[in-house]
Design brief:
CATH architecture of the largest domain: Alpha-Beta Complex
Number of domains: 2
Structural class: alpha/beta
Order of helices and strands: EHEHEHEEHEEEHHEEEHHEHH
Mean pLDDT: 90
Shape: globular
CATH topology of the largest domain: Spore Coat Polysaccharide Biosynthesis Protein SpsA, Chain A
Number of strands: 12
Length: 284
């Protein structure tokens, strides 16, 4: 057995360094490789890699090609039976990667699995979701409606806020900050859909494999410290637009929307995006 760890980096040099040190200080107990795709970073990430981690296989893009496409660049070059997609700001605790690999290897019909994500202050980070609906997208993590009505049933259902995060669970989808799958699943059901530049590619991937009868698991024994959004925080406006555009593309692709529903989705997601942008602008 062999594991390939794929990391897409965009101007997160210090976080990437910490994540790589954590991997190599407490390496998985199976043969493994690390592939880092650098999306035209301007913070000397690539040179840090060459200096401190010469064993890491690197792909240096001259432009930012997006998260999905960058991961897809690495997949054909990967030689592992298992592929772990890991954010550069998701630092594994000792043994976490081993536990994920053991779980997926021993669990029949497991299409992919994610670990428990903790914030820097060790508080729980909600990393599992239900598939979105035209209503539930209004009540997501950054939604003004969730902040106005924190106990609303739509947020609870979409964000799975009442899920027992200390228990192994089957869920609809897991966020792509930490996602382990089999190479054969990628070959059979397809790589990440490159129409999603940033965000929603994880939702789309989980939706496709679950639709084909496989299970998506959350596995809390594997713990990662995730510094959420470090590569997107400074580009929050562009990220917000990409997130909502990606959600529209998902609705169109997955739910086979007719013309009327397409119009509804545009109105719903445009309003959602404007609410988030206004809220972020006021906060800043």
């Amino acid at each position: 057995m062999k594991l390939s760890i794929i990391i897409v980096n965009y101007n997160t040099k210090s976080y990437l360094r910490d994540t790589l040190f954590a991997i190599y200080d407490y390496p998985p107990n199976l043969k493994f490789e690390v592939i880092v795709v650098d999306n035209a970073s301007k913070d000397n990430s690539y040179y840090m890699l060459k200096k401190n981690f010469p064993q890491v296989r690197t792909i240096k893009n001259t432009t930012n090609v997006g998260f999905a496409r960058a991961n897809n660049q690495a997949i054909p070059r990967a030689t592992g039976n298992f592929i772990l997609f890991l954010n550069p700001d998701a630092v594994p605790e000792p043994g976490a990667i081993n536990k994920l690999v053991h779980f997926i290897n021993e669990t029949p019909y497991c299409g992919c699995v994610g670990g428990k994500l903790l914030n820097p202050d060790d508080s729980l980070q909600l990393s599992c979701r239900s598939f979105p609906t035209y209503i539930s997208v209004f009540f997501g993590r950054q939604s003004v409606f969730r902040k106005m009505f924190p106990g609303n049933p739509f947020s609870k259902g979409f964000l799975l806020t009442e899920l027992d995060y200390n228990k192994t669970q089957k869920v609809d989808w897991i966020i792509g900050a930490c996602l382990l799958t089999h190479r054969e699943i990628l070959e059979q059901y397809g790589y990440f859909d490159e129409q999603f530049f940033l965000f929603v590619e994880d939702l789309d991937f989980c939706y496709r494999i679950k639709k084909n009868g496989l299970d998506i698991y959350y596995f809390p024994d594997a713990v990662f410290k995730h510094h959420h959004g470090v590569s997107t925080r400074r580009y929050w406006l562009r990220s917000t637009i990409q997130h909502n555009l990606g959600m529209y593309k998902f609705f169109y692709k997955a739910y086979n929307m007719k013309l009327l529903l397409q119009g509804l989705a545009v109105i719903v997601l445009s309003f959602r995006m404007l609410c988030i942008i206004c809220m972020q602008s006021i906060r800043r």
